[in-house]
Amino acid sequence: MSEEAASRPGNLLANLPQNVPEELTEILASGSGLRVERIVSTGHRSPDDFWYDQPEREWVLLLQGAATLQFADPPESIDLIPGDHVDIAAHRRHRVESTSATEPTVWLAVFYQD
Fold first, then answer.
1. Is 90 exceeded by the pLDDT of residue 58?
2. CA 23 to chain centre
3. What is the pLDDT of residue 65?
4. Strands 67-71, 76-80: parallel, antiparallel or unpaired by DSSP?
5. Three-state SS for 75?
6. CA distance linking residue 44 with residue 100, whole number of Å
7. Pairwise CA distance, residues 110 & 38, whole Å
């Protein structure tokens, strides 16, 4: 990224799609052992038989909308509203049970190594 591009502010809630066939993921920053993403969901959920099982930790902040995360072991569901955040351990199987169907759900996700 050029110095000029780095000096302009970005807005995580700007230019949100209203309906997209799949979640929209944009990498905002990355480096050694770290990745920051903006994820926009519009009523999306994980397939019933799918679980994320990631080698890195994930800290996620819900900025807009609503969502429910489901964890496999131990079984747990967490409802999220704007401002809620969760730190997910590496290899803790989880899925997105639901996201808002009435407005875009915007996540800020930070993936990092222990």
1. yes
2. 10
3. 96
4. antiparallel
5. coil
6. 8
7. 9
At 54, list the tokens: 């990631």
> What token pair was written down for 49?
């038989």
pTM, rounded to two decimals? 0.86
Residue type, 66: A
**Residue-wise DSSP of 23-64:** -EEEEEEEETTEEEEEEEESS----TT--B--SSEEEEEEEE
Cα angle 31, 71, 61 (rounded to 5 degrees) comes to 45
Asked whether the beta carbons of 95 and 41 are under 8 A apart, the reply is no
Residue listed under structure tokens 């915007």: 106
pLDDT at 109: 98
Of all helices (H) and strands (E), which one includes residue 4? helix 3-7
- For residue 5, the SS3 value is helix
Angle at 50 between CA 93 and CA 19, to 5 degrees: 115
Q: Among 7-21, 26-40, 89-103, which stretch is predicted with the lowest mean pLDDT?
A: 7-21
